[in-house]
């Protein structure tokens, strides 16, 4: 199956994501910290667990609690309508306005990209920690020790797409991404070319998704080569797909 | 947060090991379309209010919902397209008759697409190689030896 199935490749390392690529969709779902520059009315109900990890100024919860319930009926109607149509589960006391000016949130990349513009009218984007100065120094010291899977499994793709937000640190970020990859590449290549028929979970555990793809390609090359060496390359074998599905029975075949 | 259901569809597909076709998630797709409908209607009413009532502060909210609509659309299209890629691979790896288990995983439209694809491929194959046509789904790999023996009939 793998041979005839040509999935849409990720474009995240290039200028734009590929619209149809599943990898890019998963990548752009990751969150980044954001600051709202203007209030977003009528959306409060959908930001109940606003920021799992981002810092919130102490002022934000108090500010929201003190706001008079201006849009009260609007939000309740909204909540009810969406509860019936989209089956959203909402806790009893939604905040009314999304964000006073300057509240910090974590939004997925797709949303941040959509709402961002040059004049920063709706929101301004902050860099996640691993793309900031501190971590960049760590990467330049030794890139191999870092667990990139934990740091957001799409380190390179996400970092490349972050460059769209015109941060003043863009040049440093792109350099850091490149140098990190250069530092780690050798080990990935070596391990993928020498781990034949073994459990590779220890080797791939600290790699991000792009590196894992590389590792798998290397493994496939290695397996194909071993297959050829054993003379199995010209033997007819059942395709992986057919083996994975149950064998079809003669009596079930219809025209 | 919006578009969670759409992401579930994508994850389901991504999880399926190397090119296998999971069952068609009709329910999930329907929920995504309902969410899109709800978003669209809210945006419609907010746009009217912004224009006639002069409430330009609603514009960021409208933009927000619009982004969610675009995202939902992207996820559904990518979901359907990736499934078609997998179904196409089935024709090449499995042959033209699929086991029932696989057929139940496809929606009616996907089945129709598969039949049309089969037909196009068969028409093309018949047009090659003279009278009998040539089955190009066999022998996909190049031959191992440099020379082949050819039988000539006079």
From TrEMBL, chain A:
<dbReference type="GO" id="GO:0000811">
    <property type="term" value="C:GINS complex"/>
</dbReference>
<comment type="similarity">
    <text>Belongs to the GINS3/PSF3 family.</text>
</comment>
<comment type="function">
    <text>The GINS complex plays an essential role in the initiation of DNA replication.</text>
</comment>
<protein>
    <recommendedName>
        <fullName>DNA replication complex GINS protein PSF3</fullName>
    </recommendedName>
</protein>
<dbReference type="InterPro" id="IPR021151">
    <property type="entry name" value="GINS_A"/>
</dbReference>
<comment type="function">
    <text>Required for correct functioning of the GINS complex, a complex that plays an essential role in the initiation of DNA replication, and progression of DNA replication forks. GINS complex is a core component of CDC45-MCM-GINS (CMG) helicase, the molecular machine that unwinds template DNA during replication, and around which the replisome is built.</text>
</comment>
<dbReference type="Pfam" id="PF05916">
    <property type="entry name" value="Sld5"/>
</dbReference>
<comment type="subunit">
    <text>Component of the GINS complex.</text>
</comment>
<dbReference type="InterPro" id="IPR010492">
    <property type="entry name" value="GINS_Psf3"/>
</dbReference>
<dbReference type="GO" id="GO:1902975">
    <property type="term" value="P:mitotic DNA replication initiation"/>
</dbReference>
<dbReference type="InterPro" id="IPR036224">
    <property type="entry name" value="GINS_bundle-like_dom_sf"/>
</dbReference>
<keyword id="KW-0235">DNA replication</keyword>
<dbReference type="InterPro" id="IPR038437">
    <property type="entry name" value="GINS_Psf3_sf"/>
</dbReference>
<feature type="domain" description="GINS subunit">
    <location>
        <begin position="135"/>
        <end position="228"/>
    </location>
</feature>
<keyword id="KW-0539">Nucleus</keyword>
From TrEMBL, chain B:
<dbReference type="GO" id="GO:0000811">
    <property type="term" value="C:GINS complex"/>
</dbReference>
<dbReference type="InterPro" id="IPR036224">
    <property type="entry name" value="GINS_bundle-like_dom_sf"/>
</dbReference>
<dbReference type="InterPro" id="IPR021151">
    <property type="entry name" value="GINS_A"/>
</dbReference>
<dbReference type="GO" id="GO:1902983">
    <property type="term" value="P:DNA strand elongation involved in mitotic DNA replication"/>
</dbReference>
<comment type="similarity">
    <text>Belongs to the GINS1/PSF1 family.</text>
</comment>
<dbReference type="InterPro" id="IPR005339">
    <property type="entry name" value="GINS_Psf1"/>
</dbReference>
<keyword id="KW-0158">Chromosome</keyword>
<protein>
    <recommendedName>
        <fullName>DNA replication complex GINS protein PSF1</fullName>
    </recommendedName>
</protein>
<feature type="domain" description="GINS subunit">
    <location>
        <begin position="42"/>
        <end position="128"/>
    </location>
</feature>
<keyword id="KW-0235">DNA replication</keyword>
<comment type="function">
    <text>Required for correct functioning of the GINS complex, a complex that plays an essential role in the initiation of DNA replication, and progression of DNA replication forks. GINS complex is a core component of CDC45-MCM-GINS (CMG) helicase, the molecular machine that unwinds template DNA during replication, and around which the replisome is built.</text>
</comment>
<dbReference type="Pfam" id="PF05916">
    <property type="entry name" value="Sld5"/>
</dbReference>
<keyword id="KW-0539">Nucleus</keyword>
<comment type="subunit">
    <text>Component of the GINS complex which is a heterotetramer of GINS1, GINS2, GINS3 and GINS4. Forms a stable subcomplex with GINS4. GINS complex interacts with DNA primase in vitro. Component of the CMG helicase complex, a hexameric ring of related MCM2-7 subunits stabilized by CDC45 and the tetrameric GINS complex.</text>
</comment>
